[in-house]
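Researcher: I'd like a structural prediction for the single chain below. Treat it as a standalone chain; there are no partners to consider.
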Amino acid sequence: MAEEHPLPDMQIASAAVEQLKRFAESGNPFFLAVGFMKPHLPFRCPSSFFDLYPNESVRLPDNPFAPVNMPEVGFLHCYSLMHVF
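Model: Treating it as a single chain, here is the predicted structure.
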C-alpha cells in the first residue's frame, strides 16, 4: 500500500475503504472510526495538487484577525505557519 499512496492520510483512507468493504459484505451493522493526521505541519500533498492552485491565484484575506467577540474556540491560531511561507 505504501507504494501506491506514500502519504499517511491516503494510506489510512485506503485501509478504511477496504475495511468498509469487508464490513458491508458481512451484512451486519457496524461502526468504523477513522482518524486522519493532517493538516499538521509539515504540509505535504501530491505535487499535482499544487497545479490546481497556482500561487498567483491564491489571495490571502485582507483582515487576518478574528471578529470582535468571537469565541476563542472558533479561531485557529496558526503561529507555526508564519515560518512556513
